[in-house]
Sequence to fold (325 residues):
Amino acid sequence: MNSVDLLFQPPMSTQFSAAPDEFQLHHLLKQEHSPAVTELSDELKARLELEIRIALGSVEDPVVRDLLQTIFSEVLRIFNRLSLIQQKLNELDTLQENLSILEIVQFEVRYLIEFVEARAMYTTGVSKGLLETFDGISYGMSHDVKRVFERELTSDIRTKSIPVVYGKILHAHGLLSNCFQQTFITLLQVLNPNLDPLNLFDDFEERLRQSLLLCNELSALMRVAKQAESQPSPELLQEVVDKALEFRDGGMQYLMYRDWRGYEHHSLALITSIQSNFDSKSLLHQFACYLEVLYGHVKMRAVIRDLFPQSNDEAEDMNSQEPGT
Fold:
């Protein structure tokens, strides 16, 4: 399927029983021509565009540079849509409009995923590191778009009560915002390793909250895995399964994209073994060790590094470990 075909694929949420005049999709599609409504703040937009120019300045191949410019432009477009939703989150009479904007976002995200997978991954001149980055951001975007539009914003969303719809929109907005901030930062950092992501989006407190939550969830999951390893009772093994699935559907979104596949690989192997009543002791040990490495990497994040002081030797040892192995 090419990019043009993708644009004419019906979105998963087209089952919404929406009157055209109620949601004004045509009007919303043209909103990008109204900067006062859809644009990011001037300061943030200028900062993001500056970082894009710096990153693209390191790319010599004009074909690859144009490819990256297209991806960055599409991500900025999605940021604009999410910014519009953010402005309307506290206006309950705009919930239906927000659902329609999210429907447009679904088209745009799926187009971007298709562009990365069908074009960017096969462009001559793209380095191995950039190919791996494309693969990672495609995987992350696919994971979150499926979660948002197949689990959160299901076909019956418009029949739900206002508090439920509001909560779903709020959650979807948070997931997509985090997804595309990660996508943007990941792509920038492979081009400009000196980038400081903490100064990019002015969301230090939110990143701090996410990192602390991640540390707490990893620690709890690691503790349950170690308990089950030493005392493999049916109850504890089932708790490992439940907690591993809960983390996959929750805290995993705050890991770096490169760690998502590693976590899913280790957790799936363990869950399958437990549910098949196999001896899972060795897999429990591997899973606990893997979680410990992830936990160590999260503690080294700049936003919380000072909360977990460690020696230089410990830091070097942690840096030498790959979470995905």
User: Anything to note?
Assistant: The chain has 14 helices and no strands.
